[in-house]
Design a protein that fits this description.
single chain; 398 residues; mainly beta; Immunoglobulin-like; 4-stranded antiparallel β-sheet; 21 strands
Length: 398
């Protein structure tokens, strides 16, 4: 999420540069987490972001950043849409003092190694870290926790007075749909702005969103690196938290946990709506969003059992779910170890894991089903998961 700052700065540079590299920037970020409608404590997590962009695909293939104190960093491809965008991060740092010590003022050099615009370099004479302005926060966060779906939502934040720092400034606000795992909406406002409106079209029944409000200032340094590209030094304080859109009747939503599994994003889960007599009245395959958030809609009405099944995990049932009202917080925890996807952890799962033991995706005997923790290798840790859940079975209709 930190790269958004640099994207904002670099888009502005594109209008004034005719070089293959259209802009590059150093961003100092201090990030906060908000609880309630008051300012968060002044104990941020700090990052440095370095970014370089081109309007032409293939102009940037590899690049590094040389820093005064921590040596060189490799930049990686984070392109989106047309053109090319490369970025690297340094952090997190537990305080602004730790950050300033690691990244002092001095010369930061971008080196373009390969690509259509290579070779080339550009420098930024970075000023000392400046986080002297206000911490941004939403003054109406509590009212955003059960937003009605489809209706515009007013968002307000504290004033940004911007004393004594860089000449250009803005306030930015955006939301990421954690349930769908997509950027949802954002707006750049003037420094004097104290609010914006989230369009109702972006607020979906049962979805959870991460918001970010940022006060940022920057200076166009006119370093003229890379044969004419301009550069920015950006300072940002940003604050985030989760907000939620209330589920309508027929929507089931929540956060699903895949036990002992590293990264639930993108994992498929089969959900069933089951009648009291065991009849399956609806079945869908959904995809988990960030941190396991999910939501699905069903036309089935009444009080039903909802089941959840992932191929490596035992089926779990949540009973007595009233679909005549929205369900926002159905938070199942699935048990790991079902390698062969037969809804039981047995000797057959053990044998399949044994056959694939000590493998990665590059090996001929690799079996992705046996990678129970999702770390890309089949090891003793996968055995331990299976062993801890051995002889367990998932829910089946009676």
């Amino acid at each position: 999420m930190k790269s958004v700052v640099s994207i904002t700065a670099l888009l502005a540079l594109a209008a004034v540069s005719h070089a293959d590299v259209n802009g590059y920037a150093i961003t100092y970020s201090a990030s906060y987490n908000q609880i309630g409608d008051v300012a968060p404590p002044d104990n941020p997590t700090c990052y440095l972001t370095a970014s370089i962009s081109s309007l032409v695909a293939g102009d940037l293939l590899s690049a590094t950043l040389s820093t005064p104190s921590l040596g060189d960093f490799d930049l990686y491809d984070a392109s989106y849409g047309a053109g090319t965008y490369f970025v690297c991060y340094s952090g997190p740092f537990a305080s602004t003092a730790d950050f300033a010590a690691a990244h002092p003022a001095g010369t930061y050099t971008f080196n373009l190694l390969t690509g259509g615009a290579a070779p080339g370099s550009g420098t930024i004479e970075v000023h000392p870290a400046d986080f002297s302005y206000e911490i941004p926060y939403l003054t109406n966060l509590s009212s955003l926790q059960m937003l009605p779906a489809g209706l515009d939502a007013e968002v307000t934040w504290n004033p940004f007075t911007r004393p004594g720092f860089e000449p250009d400034a803005e306030t930015g606000f955006y939301i990421v749909d954690y349930t769908a795992a997509v950027y949802a909406w954002g707006a750049a406002e003037t420094p004097e702005s104290t609010g914006t409106t989230i369009p109702g079209a972006q607020l979906i029944s049962g979805h959870t969103y991460a918001y970010n409000v940022a006060y940022r200032s920057w200076e166009r340094l006119n370093e003229q690196g890379f044969g004419g590209a301009l550069s920015d030094q950006v300072y940002e304080r940003n604050t985030g938290a989760l907000i939620h859109c209330a589920a309508n009747p027929g929507t089931v939503a929540g956060k699903l946990t895949l036990s002992d599994y590293y990264y639930p994003l993108g994992q498929p889960v089969t959900v069933q709506v089951v009648a009291q007599d065991g009849t399956i009245e609806d079945e869908q395959t959904i995809t988990l969003g960030y941190e396991g958030y999910y939501a699905f809609d069903t036309a089935v009405t009444g009080t039903k059992t909802i089941t959840f099944k992932n191929p490596r995990f035992l089926r779990l049932a949540v009973e007595n779910v009233d679909l005549s009202v929205g369900q926002d917080f159905i938070n199942p925890v699935l048990i790991n170890g079902d390698v062969d996807d037969d809804n039981a952890v047995t000797i057959f799962d053990y044998l399949a894991l044994s056959d694939a033991f000590d493998s990665t995706a590059a090996d001929a005997w690799w079996d992705a089903r046996a990678d129970l923790d999702g770390d890309g290798t089949i090891t003793i840790f996968d055995y331990l998961i299976l062993s801890n859940n051995f002889d367990l079975s998932g829910w089946e209709p009676s």
